[in-house]
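Quick start: what a row looks like.
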Amino acid sequence: MKSIKSYSIKAVAKETGLTPFVIRAWEKRYQAVVPERTDTNRRVYSSEDVEKLRLLFKATQKGHSIGNIANLSLEDLQEMISINRGDENIIHDDNSKIGTNDLDEQLELCIQAIQELDADKFEKELNNVSINFSQPQILEFIIIPLMEKIGNSWSDGTLRVVNEHMASVIISSFLLNLKDTYKISNNAPKIIFTTPMGQQHEFGALVAGAVAASVGWKVIYLGPNLPSTELIAAVDKLNAKCVGISLVYPPSDPDLKRELSKLKSLSSKVKIFVGGRSAKTYSDILEELNAKITIDLNDFKKELQDLSYE
């Protein structure tokens, strides 16, 4: 029998970290919970519903597919999470292979929507992804391959600029929303993400921001093309512990090297992470900054977890 205490969908979203959209979708598609209804047809959730949704969210973050676990009992979910507790340093585990064919199909549907310049369809497909797959699966099997596909197609002329712009706006919004699904403590360490002046490609910074939020960091995203002087001011103002920078194109730019060299004035206590496909081509100046070049998201996640305990 369900407990007497009841929650509105807004309250459930606050308690679990899930968005109302995902909660409703998990109800309708998988019957993960079955809330009662008021006389005015509003959903009312019990304490058990809230706890189950919280556990389901935690399990999907560890790589489990919602379709495979939606109907498990509270006890089974608690046991599953307890067994997987030692895997917290891994951005994807063996369970990330669950539904790989479905992920491949979903990726193709996203690409098709971009090619057709169908913004509504693309947003719908990304919403389907967020409902059915875990954050590690979404990043590894959808977002990163999608970004690579868009970049390559734009470079070789098979994708028009307008298609790339449409996809960029929608993916950016999706990643920002993904970051905001995590409940972050007010005392959490802060990390700022941006791209330096002249660097317009922000996907890498947004992906890294979602990963940082998943391990409890307070993520401040300042957008692309930010002058180093402004980044330094933000670090000082917000007392940020780390900075994350994405470098994509061009692979060698004297102006960018000069811009990056200004970061030498940052406190030595501030850890600088640099990712993106052009990061290694700036290794000389990054070494002077004592910056960490990080390409692998698993390594990045583990480093942030270690730093959060210092």
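That is the whole record. Residues 6-87 form a domain with the Multidrug-efflux Transporter Regulator; Chain: A; Domain 2 fold (CATH 1.10.1660.10). Residues 86-99 have pLDDT under 50 and may be disordered.
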